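Repro:
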Amino acid sequence: YVTVGDEGRLDASNVLIDQLRDQKPMARATLPGRDDLSRLWRTHSFPHNGVQVLDPVSEDLPDDYRAFFTALRAVPLRLWELTNTRDIIGLTASMGSMIDSGEFEIAGYFEVTRAMAMTPAPRDRGQVVWLRNKRFLPRAAFYQAWDVLPEQKVLDRLASPAWDPKTMLLVEGKTLDARPDPLPPANEVAIDAYTANRVGLHLTAPAPGIVLLNDRYDPGWRVTVDGAPAELLKCNAIMRGVKVAAGPHRIEFVYRPYRLNFIACLCALFVFAAWGVARLAARRRAMTPQVAPG
């Protein structure tokens, strides 16, 4: 077992966090355990130190996330595959079946002290194990095959063993024709900018296709391809995508929620109205006859 010490020290980094944060390519981590250590790392240490965490046990989930996690509750391997989750960390005693499954590589074992320091440990003494998922999807990928389905049918297909997420996308909506011939993803998609409100990608597409970004879909995101506005697609129930033609492309996702756009418009109207009032007042002063003193 692990004794959790001063919770305030959880904001400090440690050898595991440093390795997770510096890994390439970009991927998420998860701590599926419901023990105190996993909970505190999931909500404090990892996010505070820049490690992106998948947190399906959070009570504060948007409706689309909740539906997504519910559909995949019985198949955690598919959940981690679809969400670009490579690193799984937990108490060794509770992860024996995963260690022996053959689906993961063992990246390391660690001991945790009362002061929340962490040191590498041999297998027979490691309280915490770090596993690497062999099947995780990249953060961004190019696809030449997809199926177009309504929302509920996308959710129904997520856990199906007949669907291979590495060769085919599930796209929600009616504005796109299906292209169901499964083909492996072609060419790497490079990430050249990544912040909370902006993501930049570039690739050379060998044929028309869809670029998948394994980050959460929201209508507030805008996407451009080579500087021109493009349609934002909802892929695999909660992820973002955009259609591209064959050839080299620069793609940019920028978060501009409707509410902020509305507020910006109101501010612009207010400034314009204030300028108009000021100009009218100045004109009236100029037209008012000046009375000479005396």
